[in-house]
Amino acid sequence: MTETEIQELETATGCILPTAYRELLLNYPQRLLDLAATLDVEELELLTHNHESLTRMNVDQAESVRMFFPPHYFVIGENGNGDVYAIDTHSSAVPVYMGGPHPGEYPEDAAGNPLPDADSLQEYVEYVVFLYEDAIQYESELDDTGVYQPPGKLMETLSVCLSLLLAPVMLLLLLFSMIMAVPYFLLLELWDKVRPAKD
Questions:
Q1: At a CB cut-off of 8 Å and minimum separation 6, what does 22 contact?
Q2: What is the pLDDT of residues 155-181, one digit of tens each?
Q3: Is the pLDDT confidence value at 55 over 70?
Q4: Cβ neighbours of 75 (radius 10 Å)
Q5: Burial class (CB in 10 A: 0-12, 13-18, 19+), 131
Q6: Which of 107, 97, 93 is nearest to 77 (CA)?
């Protein structure tokens, strides 16, 4: 994202974005870009960095976001289940809060005041990286349907040995079925001869 696009977002939302978040947008971490590439998506929705996505969440959907957050909060991501993540632009520590349409499912203190989901933007970035790396690991374990193949010539040797063992077994089965077929046909002929004639 460019400085001009950040200024456009600030003008449209009335929020002055904290320095730490501006730096994140201007120098989006390569680690996050790599995760998005691995997942074959344009961006990670938990921590979006596209001007269009941030405009949609903070300007186009501002009315619904204000039901969860005060006007000085800026939405930085969503999880696809209706929950959104926002930063408190009045705090230099840049805590990240989670809110949405599921009352009682968001961090609160004993008095019912919202607690940050992450105490800082850096902590939230690490959390996002952990979640996506964990999801990628889980998916790769689910997709691992390949059969173990021993390294080097061992697989080739095992294959040849198996073929050599199976060939005589197949020949014995064929021979056995031929031997069993002869008595069966002889018994059928004998039965036809001794069977009582029908009137």
A1: 6
A2: 566 666 677 778 787 888 887 777 777
A3: yes
A4: 24
A5: middle
A6: 97
Amino acid identity, position 154:
L
Within 8 A by CB and 6+ apart from 81, the residues are: 100
Classified as helix, coil or strand, 82 is coil
Q: What is the DSSP secondary structure assignment for residue 58, as one 8-state letter?
A: I
Query: For residues 3 and 105, what is the distance between their CA atoms, to the nearest angstrom?
Result: 35
Q: Enter the pTM of the model.
A: 0.67
* Residue whose entry in the numeric block shows the structure tokens 């599921």: 102
Residue 34, both tokens: 């790599």
Q: How far apart are CA 139 and CA 141, in angstroms?
A: 5
Read off the pLDDT of residues 71-106 as tens digits, 9 standing for 90 and up. Answer: 999 999 998 888 999 999 999 889 999 998 888 888
Backbone angles phi, psi at 83, to 5 degrees: -85, 140
For the chain, what's the residue count?
199
